[in-house]
Structures are given as structure tokens and as C-alpha cells.
UniProtKB/TrEMBL annotation:
EC number(s) recorded for this UniProt protein: 2.6.1.42
Any one of the GO CC terms: mitochondrion
UniProt-recorded name of the protein: Branched-chain-amino-acid aminotransferase
Keyword Transferase: yes
Amino acid sequence: MSAQDMTPPASGTATPTAKSLTKAGIEHNLESNAQTAQLDASKLKISLTTAPRDPPAAGSEELKKMRTCTDHMVTARWTLEDGWEAPELKPYGPLSIMPTASVLHYATECFEGLKLYHGEDGKLRLFRVRRNCERLRRSAARISLPDFPAEQLEILIKKLCATDGPKWLPNKGGFLYLRPTFIGTDPGLGVQVPKEALLYVIIAVFPDWSDPRNLPAASAVNPDLSEKVTKAQGLKLLASKEDSIRAWPGGFGYAKLGANYGPSLVGQGEARARGYDQILWLFGNNGSVTEAGASNFFVVWKTKEGKQQLITAPLHDNLILEGVTRDSVLNITKERLSTSESAAKYNAESVEVIERKFTMQEILDAYTEGRLVEAFAAGTAYFVAPVGLIGWKEHELEIPLAEGKTGVYARIIRGWLSDIMYGNDNHEWGVLVDEA
């Protein structure tokens, strides 16, 4: 991937000089980093733990707290002078950084989220892992962290999965959560491009958030909640107000940075206090729909002419994350539901897949006119999660769930992707982990 590929497309109404500033900076950093040692997974140093731990029991409080990681982690250190040092696979434990580290003061941090699956055939699989590695490169470039070959990170991830997966993921149909993370560790307090950085990968034991029973409860018991909110099935989304913005054109909403998430927690906490699960982030005076919490958002509706469409927000203005699950939903739906003949195999109506800007008013119009078919969120954590309620201004939109707890399309798409993840569909997106 070239420096040009790593740079997000220009957007908005910025002047040519402003548009070129970020691109030029990213390209300069990439060129500088290319002169030193590159990340090389073949140099991996392995030091196994002498104090192995037991995985938490299913349904335990330890599991629900999401604080438990597997026995090992992978780390790789980078410095401006020497480039990448030999990566290490070593016991999971605390990191050592200085109080003045760049990440603690200037948010030079990015991360990824993906899962390791134990297939029905007994094999371990990752799902489109290379796309996560490439996206981490793009995120790193946006905050001036060094580049690395995506395939080398993929090898390191697979090695960690092969080491801890068999013990920590013994049961078919289960999964573990992987968190590759990249931080600036430069101890200099000056506002500058970090001269030291640390890439690390950990594996966490998470509950299944795609199961509504595992969703965190509302943060307060509110006696004033409406009957619609208390009884709604599926995800409940509270649309953001004009004074709350997650991302903006020309910004960094497209990058998976910690800086995108911290400021959103206030809104998320307020949503839970009102009985909702997540914020549906809107942008602009017209209420353009972007993301649902940390997931991409999809809606299925019929146009006034009777055409059925699957709609999601576009990528070109850099407002939303280029989700791996998002891309998978779009591509597999185009492949399998674009014609009446192909859709009939799944007892569904064909849909036109559209990436465009759309507003909450359009959703409300489709709802009041009986054209709204269903809605769902899609991402690594929530997988494909049906949406049952959207709160917007004075409206509480009860989103249709044709099958009680899910819509038809959410169920079908979820099933397709799950089959790939767990090996029931021998698809190129399912990446085997060699346990040997």
C-alpha cells in the first residue's frame, strides 16, 4: 500500500492548501519511516508464561467485567533512530511507559477490534483479519505513528491466537476478542511527532454483546420511561441532538482512534440513563445519520415507488469508520440478494444496496408511511444487531421486527457471516489459524 493509499480522500469545502496539509504530513512520515528497520514477524522472540491462569466461567461476573485477558500478549517497539525492534510474545502483564508519554498527553493512540472463532469443525478462524491490519495502518498514519507491513502484523496476530486459542477457546461456537493497539510512548512533553512507539496485541474474554441479554443495563432506574422504551425488543437507539457531534468532514472519524470514543461516553451514559442502549449519531442541521454507537447503521425501506433498498452512510466525507462488518454486509448482500431469483433462495425480497447520505426525517417519513422494513447495527462487538426502537426529538419509532426479535434481513445476513466465521461456509473471508 502506497502513501497515497494510506491517505483519506479530501472532503468538505476546505481550501486546497488545507486539504493537502494532512496528506503531505502523512506522506512525509511514511517516507521517513521507510529508511529504518521494518516490522519483521520472523524475528519474533517467544517467552511463555510460568504462571498460567484459568479462563473465567461462562456467565460469571469476571467475564461480564471484560477485564480478563489470555496468558500472553505480543509487543513490538519502534524508535525513530532504529525502526522496529524484534517483536516479542510474552506473558500478559502491565506496560511500562513514562508519565510524560505522548499517548497520555496528546492522544497518539489507535486500535482495532476483531474476534477469534472456534469453528464447528474444531478449527480456529479469524474473519478478514488483513482488513483490520490495513485499517490500523491508516489510523496510525493519521496520528503520526510509524508504518508497518500489514501482513507482518497478521502473522503476529495468528501466532498469538495459536498460542492461547486452544486453551482459552475450547468450545465450538465460542469467540475471543482481539485488541491490537498502537501508542506513542515518546517521553518528550513537546507537541511533536512521537519518536518512540509501541504496538501490542492482547486477547480478551468478552460476553456476547449481540445477545440483548448481555447488554449493559441502563445506568439509572428511571420511573418516567415510556412503555415503548421499557418493552422494546432489539437495540434501542437515542438520536443525538444538534449540540452533540461525533465526527466532522475533514476530521478523523474514519480512523479508529481512542480520541473518537472518550468524548462520546457522556452521550452514551445519558442514553442508558434514559433506557436506551446506544446513541444514533446524527450530523448537521438536517440530522444526517452516521453511526450507531461504535457500529455502522443500516436501514431497509421501500421507496415511494416500491423499490426495496438497504441504505447506509457513505465513506467519502470521512465521518464514519470503514467497518469490516459493514463492508462484509454490503458485499454479501449485493452478491446474494440483488436479484429476485437469488433472493428467492433465501425466502426474501431482493434489495438494492445504497451508500448515501440520509436523514432522520427520511426514516421518520418511511416509518409514518409504512415503508420502513427494518434497521440494524453492524460491527465486531454487536455483530449484526436488530434495532427495535429509535428515539428522536418527540418521536419514539418502533422499528419493525418481522420475526419478533429480528428483521428478516438482519437474520439472513447474520447467518451468512456467522457461517463463514465458524467454518460452516468455506469462504475466503474465514482465515484459518494454524495451531501447530
